[in-house]
Amino acid sequence: MLGVFGILLSLGLLMYLAYRGISVIILAPILAMLAVVLAGEGSQMLGIYTQVFMVKLGGFAIKYFPIFLLGAIFGKLMEDSGSAKSIAQTIINKLGQHHSVFAIVASCGLLTYGGVSVFVVAFAVYPLAAALFKEADMPKRFVPAAIALGAFTFSMTALPGTSQIHNIIPTSYFGTDMYAAPVVGLVAGFAIMFTGIWWINRRVNEFKAEGYGSNHKMEPVIDPDLEQRLPNLWVALIPVLIVVLSNFVLQKYVIPGWNTGYLNSEKFGYINPDKLISIWSMIMALIMAVLSVIALNWRRIRNVNTSLTKGAIGSMLPTFNTASEVGYGATIASLAAFTLVKDAVVNISPNNPLISEVVAVNVLAGITGSASGGLTIALEALGSTYAQMATQFGINPEWMHRLASMASGGFDSLPHNGAVITLLTICGLTHKTSYKDIAMVSLAIPVTITALTVAVLSVFFV
After folding, report:
1. What is the mean pLDDT of residues 113-134?
2. Which of 23, 215, 384, 403 has the least C-beta neighbours within 10 A?
3. Could you tell me the sign of the dihedral formed by the alpha carbons of 400, 406, 410, 416, in that order?
4. 299 φ, ψ to 5°?
5. How far is residue 75's CA from residue 156's CA, in Å, rounded to a whole number?
6. CA–CA dist 366, 36 (Å, integer)
7. Do 119 and 159 contact (CB within 8 A), yes or no?
8. CA–CA distance from 236 to each of 83, 92, 281 (Å)?
């Protein structure tokens, strides 16, 4: 029981200290070793650190670093070229005041689906969203909720083919691709989107008399000549379309036709090529997208080398944050006491892994304050178990993939989530003024839709 207590204490401290602003890169190894000591395996601590924690951390970085690197560079180039802002501004201008919330959500969703970092999306869209709300005299306090709905939810986890890492990670555990469970993902994704829009519009109407408000911090200054300097919509969209379309074609039609028999050798670790298709296709799609942004915006980007360097540097923190959480999850899973925890989680629904998977990913995402962190810890610890259970009970592994991804975008949005804190900072607002609505659209609604999806699949198809 002391071992189980150690695991729970370690997880609790991870949540609390991450909320206090301490880096997960520092917390993960320290708290993993705390769990090791309390589990009575302190004599093996250094061995577990170097041969479990670091090996798993390195394995994740080796597999996914190219995607983090290229994704960060792509996002930085989209930002520096003005392409991200051009897309957002065009959508917002076309839809106008009468569809303000939908315009913001749609512009954020398109950028996120195309592989642009949620942080870049927030920076690009906020000035335009604030200006639109101000023009329509709508309460500014709801701007963060609209951005969160578009960037943190359906386009990040639910829609099949989304280029975010949360949709790529499950492919390695379930032998699926990024377009897993398309019908489930589309129905759930649009349900999250339109329910969230309904909620924000309802709240805006409820507080209409409040108006935009005054004395706000971080008020954006819109450059009147901005539109003339930005690339036109189609030039801005081409790189995003390249990511989406080339990834689909490569993943579905090109790479499966390659001769990959050489991978079944000692040199390549006898790897199953099916586990690499999603990663290879995403790497190639992002390379083409990066080159296209540079080619189309050569004169708009002030210094391409600076953008590339900043993008590369910006990829390091998210890579090693997530990789450290993988190492943490692997360490916890290696402890004898974890068998009791695993059995308790699996036995939430011993004949239906969909339920226990969604619970496990949501809880761990909430504890870590990270969608990718909760997803990787859960799948690193329980992924093989869920894959075996899916086979045993005849459950489509694509459902396991899609629901794991969707579940990661639920309790991750608790107040200590880094993206939530950054979004509020960008908008010059506080948890007190705006978190309730962020929580509704990026936590309560996604969790509810995910639960309903599990219920429908379980009743009618399992």
Report:
1. 85
2. 215
3. positive
4. -85, -20
5. 15
6. 22
7. no
8. 4, 15, 22
pLDDT tens, position by position, 210-249: 887 776 666 655 555 555 678 998 999 999 999 999 989 9
One-letter identity of residue 30: I
Question: How many residues in total does the chain contain?
Answer: 462
Whether the Cβ atoms of residue 64 and residue 168 lie closer than 8 Å to each other? yes
d(CA 369, CA 374) in angstroms, rounded, equals 8
CA-CA distance, 105 to 125, in Å (whole number)?
10
Residue 124 CA to its chain's centroid (Å): 18
Pinpoint the alpha helices (H) of 81-181.
83-95, 100-113, 118-136, 143-152, 165-168, 171-174
Compute the C-alpha angle 382/383/389, nearest 5°. Answer: 90
CA distance between the termini of the chain: 35
d(CA 145, CA 207): 15
The Cα 420–Cα 139 span in angstroms is 19
Site of tokens 């991978």: 263
Q: What is the DSSP string of 19-67?
A: HTT--HHHHHHHHHHHHHHHTT-GGGHHHHIIIIIHHHHHHHHHHHHHH
pLDDT tens track for 295-323: 999 988 889 999 999 989 988 888 888 88
Tens of pLDDT, residues 191-212:
999 999 999 999 999 998 888 7
The values of phi and psi at residue 251, to 5°, are -70, -35
What is the model's pTM? 0.84
What SS3 class is residue 298? coil
Please report, for the chain, the start and end positions of each structural domain, with discontinuous segments joined by +.
61-460
